[in-house]
Design goal:
The protein is an alpha+beta fold and about 550 residues long. It has 12 helices and 21 strands. It holds the Pfam family HECT_2.
Length: about 550
């Protein structure tokens, strides 16, 4: 079965000559021009051509002086029938420009139904508002009586029935606590440290509860079917080495009928601290406990002022911090100490703040077809560190059939999720350059430069003369430049680091298999452009759906 983000271009097999001609329709947001790029590899177009546009049939025909012609379907947009058609012939392609009554992204266009009527049961639900918000997904999933997640590749049932859905906490606990209570030991700094310790102690996934992030759902390992996990070592210690480059996967249980899952699968239980009974940080609801914490802080304040009439001195503050750190370390389990820095994330486009040299990410494969469906954090024992496994939305479905009308995740693909994260980084970090690194080795795998975040496109192959006109819709894209290092032969590490420093580029860390799939899609899109449009300043030109 094809990958979730694989690009498929329509082709004409009946007429090989027509199928050699490729077309790409392009439009920019807020502009009323539709551009067609038409070319055939290794064929130089003649200079004398005639263009005929039939708005009623949504068809554009390009006739060459030799008598040959190619037919190009026109996307469902509002074309100005009275405006002239502009055509130019270049060395390796033909360019045609049409005038639009309204830009493709105009609000009035989104409210119009330019398609032919379809039966209500067959009419697809619009994905105009993709991506859906986490709150929207939680609302929809919670409204279902029970939700099972399925592998998108082979339809295997992956989980038991889930009834509770919450948003994954995504804040840096230490920073939030410090900003709220302050960091000085003579104020409420003691409460800040106690809160962070409570967060770390309570952070664990719980059976029957699903946590939702922007790119994944986090399922407790006991809610997964057909998989066994290594047992977490109680006296686990961590070294200071960087993450291993070796990627391993889970071993599925012996396959049986009915999706190849053992009906009564037994999962090895992970030992958790007694206070860890919820998958989100527990709140301090007891007012007396809050007062007790405040009393601890006040006592520290009094002790400090007995030695100094002003605020605490550096020596006393340092001693206080060391005592608190020792107290926290003795009370926390080894695995919980990692959570003091905050959430681990979901291994999709992680930032430096989510990385730890004590944590490795293991690729989680479908127990039936062995396709990648998620990942989970672990230490050296390869057991889920927080009892949770991240299942990527673009690799799973919420119901059967997969990617059906009732599948909440049907519109998610790897490339669309990647584009979404790039755009968010461009808005938040004000950077349009990104280096994608291997989450294991930290080696740079690709350089990305955003060119236009608000473009629309449709690519395909020209039709033969007898074929019916295909109805096509333009889709939103992000135009970008990229360079790839999939085979570790193209990117020079020194040059990449200089490029990152000079351009203040953003850095993200991904699973290498996902990066390879992304680059494959970008390279395929690049082939739909004429040679003169393939390269720019040493980078390859391409686009990604958003």
């Amino acid at each position: 079965m094809s990958s979730s983000s694989e690009l498929v271009f329509p082709a004409s097999a009946e007429n090989p000559k027509c199928s050699k001609w490729r077309f790409t329709w392009e439009a920019q947001s807020h502009t009323s021009t539709l551009r067609l790029i038409l070319f055939s590899p290794n064929i130089k177009p003649c200079t004398e051509i005639t263009v005929n546009l039939s708005v009623e049939k949504s068809l554009l025909t390009v006739c060459f002086v030799e008598g040959d012609s190619v037919r190009v379907p026109v996307p469902r947009v509002l074309i100005d029938p009275e405006a002239p058609v502009h055509c130019r012939v270049f060395d390796d392609h033909v360019e045609v420009k049409l005038a639009l009554l309204l830009p493709v992204d105009h609000p009035l266009i989104s409210g119009l139904d330019l398609s032919e009527p379809e039966p209500e049961e067959e009419k697809p639900v619009s994905d105009t508002f993709f991506p859906f918000s986490v709150n929207y997904e939680i609302k929809k999933l919670s409204a279902m009586e029970e939700v099972h997640f399925y592998c998108r590749s082979c339809s295997t049932k992956l989980t038991k029935g889930i009834r509770l859905f919450n948003e994954m906490p995504s804040v840096d606990w230490q920073d939030v606590a410090d900003n709220w209570f302050g960091t000085c030991c003579c104020s409420f700094g003691g409460i800040s440290e106690q809160l962070v310790m409570q967060f770390a102690k309570s952070y664990s996934c719980t059976t029957g509860v699903c946590l939702i992030t922007g790119a994944s759902v986090i399922i407790c390992k006991e809610d997964l079917v057909g998989c066994e996990f290594p047992e977490l070592k109680g006296d686990q210690t961590y070294d200071s080495q960087v993450n291993s480059a070796k990627v391993t996967s889970l071993r599925p249980c012996p396959e049986e009928e009915n999706y190849g899952v053992k009906p009564n699968n037994e999962v090895v239980e992970m030992m958790i601290d007694g206070d860890s009974s919820t998958c989100i940080p527990s709140k301090l609801k007891d007012e007396d406990k809050m007062k007790s914490l405040a009393g601890t802080s006040s006592k520290a304040n009094c002790d400090t002022k007995n030695h100094n009439t002003g605020c605490c001195t550096n020596n006393l503050s340092e001693r206080f911090s060391k005592e608190k750190e020792h107290e926290m370390n003795t009370e926390l389990l080894d695995k919980q100490k990692i959570f003091l820095k905050g959430c681990l994330g979901d291994a999709f486009m992680l930032r430096h703040s989510n990385l730890s040299k004590d944590v490795k990410w293991i690729e989680f494969l479908c127990p039936k077809c062995s396709s990648l469906i998620g990942a989970y954090p672990c230490s050296s024992d390869k057991a889920p560190l927080d009892d949770g496994v991240r299942l990527y939305k673009f690799n799973i479905s919420t119901c059967l059939p997969v990617r059906g009308l009732n599948d909440l995740f049907r519109e998610y693909t790897l490339e669309r999720m990647f584009s979404r994260q790039l755009l968010e980084a461009a808005q938040d970090e004000l950077t349009f350059r990104t280096v994608v690194r291997d989450i294991h080795t930290k080696r740079a795998l690709s350089q990305i430069v955003l060119l236009n975040p608000n473009a629309w496109c449709y690519s395909g192959y020209c039709m033969h003369n007898m074929a019916p006109v295909t109805k096509i819709n333009m889709y939103p894209i992000v135009k970008l430049l990229f360079s790839a290092n999939i085979n570790y032969t193209e990117l020079e590490p020194r040059n990449v680091e200089e490029w990152v420093t000079k351009n203040q580029a953003d850095e993200v860390f991904m699973l290498p298999s996902q990066v390879k799939e992304l680059i494959t899609n970008l390279e395929m899109t690049n082939t739909m452009l004429p040679p003169s449009h393939m390269l720019l300043q040493g980078f390859s030109m391409s686009s990604s759906k958003r």
